[in-house]
Amino acid sequence: MHNTLRRALICVPIALAAAVLFAAPLGNTVVTHADPGGGTVIEGNFAGDPKTFNPLLVQDQSSQLITGFLFPSLLGVDAKTGGFAPNMPGGLALSWTVSDDSKTYTIKLRQGLKWSDGKDITAQDVQYTWDATIDPQVGSPNSVLWTKNGGTIDSIKATDDYTVEVKFSSADCTALNNIGLVVVPAHIYKADHSDVATSAYNTNPTVTWGPFKFQEFVPSERVSLVANPDYPDAIDKTVKPEGFIYKNVTNQTVSVDQFIAGESNIFDTPPASRRADIAKASDTINIFKYAGDSWEHLVLNEDDPSNPQPGVDKDGKPVAQGHHPLFGDVRVRQAIAKGLDVEAIIKTGVQGEATRMASTLLNTSWAHDPNLKPIAFDQAAAKKLLDDAGFPVGPDGKTRVAKGAKYAKDGTPLKFTLIYFSSNARRTAVSQIIKSQLEDIGFQVDLSGMDFNTQIDTVNSEKYDAAIEVLGTTFPADPGSDLNGLYTPGGDVLGAGNLNVTSYSNPQVADLLDKARTVPGCARDARAKLYQQAEKILQDDEPIIYLYSLNGEYDALKTVKGFDPKPWPSPPGLYWNIDSWTVVQKAS
């Protein structure tokens, strides 16, 4: 995710998901009540029911949003800088110090914070969260981030009730991103973690800490939260909205229609195809546009989908991978990259609401090489690559069949299934365009639309050919927190927490990413040079077909007073000050 890489389709929880509320450094503020006239914030949810409200287990977008309102993060973020800072709302850390060798972080916690059942929030909660995260019986998606994905955390320990000591095996420029735990109440679960994965608390979180409390989960209908009158970090010393409702809708189109009609009052990133409709209603809607922090791409499975293997074994040693009959050959992947007219996809499928990408880093990233150009659309070159890869055109003069291919048996058609999230109008349209363009160079493409959670499970299991995904950057952004999971064998874990769903492995890339993450002094210029080298290799290897970054947009009805989003991923970008919102009857 990390504060982790956000996979908006196959979504790993952001470790700072709970730090959605922050402002100035905290003083001795006390909330005495929720505002009785604050109204209710309502958002449409077309991604399907949340799977869990336990931050240790979250890997879908719906669950991530709700847990962000119910649990604290170890570290807080300064709303002015968008960076980690001590003594910030939403975070437990009062201060921290770093050892001379940069391997030990000693974090002092704020005192006096209490869970909703009156129990103190202490360092034991932090340690329990860490211990449960890395316990295999829990199955936390976050475990890969610290134990397999080049993770450098050796331990997190409570040295007293309000002190946490984090030890790293080496100095790490992404250290703070890595320790942005979302903390759970230890006293709710058994000490040996044996009930963490199955507890009824996971869908009925009765003990929480945040601007809202859990009220009700009605599957296929809604999640309802109510204001927490005891939340001490509220910007105006009171939680103004009376509640938050996350209501299920059929798809994005219905969600937009309901928003414009006033049946919901906020919208996180509307589909490009409906942004013009929202703009036409600007007399009743506040629209906030910003440079995109997420990117859409085509994921190609290099592993044998009939017998997928993890990247490393329990001792961290590489596991021999099988080969996808088509995508195991880099020439086939390169042919796809050259055979896609991405500019046409942006114009037709995304209504121009995107920017072409050259490789894995956003064009706005400090680590991106501005001189690296995107792969040029070239059907002739794509066809030649397919010929060279042993997929010549068959007797019908159009379709291609293996003859001397590297991994496909002779007679195997150049055919694959492309899966996508069917309730997302943009991904449906883009999938259809990709199918058409690839058929022009000899592929046969079957489309398979799935619901959100089914696609998560399918791609994480690596029993697929190709998929349309959206990835979002970490917050605060750092490529070192994003790329290791995507492109090293340690991120290939099969099942929950799988980031390297392509089974990509290139020792040169892994070495560059490791060096960039551990540059002495963490100078950005030195780190950027290493990331740029990796960026070019990834463009050549094409484990992922890099398409475009999506333009960002947050919207709220003008009845939502206090709407003041930040140009950051959400959470926290849209919701950073939600405790100060008031929903009125009519816009003034």
Explain this structure:
- By secondary structure, the chain is an alpha+beta fold.
- Helix content is 23%, strand content 20%.
- The chain is built from 14 helices and 20 strands.
- Strands 1, 12, 13, 14, 15, 16, 17 and 18 form an eight-stranded mixed beta sheet that branches. A four-stranded mixed beta sheet has the order 2-11-10-9. It has a four-stranded antiparallel beta sheet with strand order 5-6-8-7, covered by helices on one side.
- The longest helix is centred in the C-terminal third of the chain and has 18 residues, at 524-541.
- It is globular and about 75 Å long.
- Residues 1-24 and 27-34 have low confidence and may be disordered.
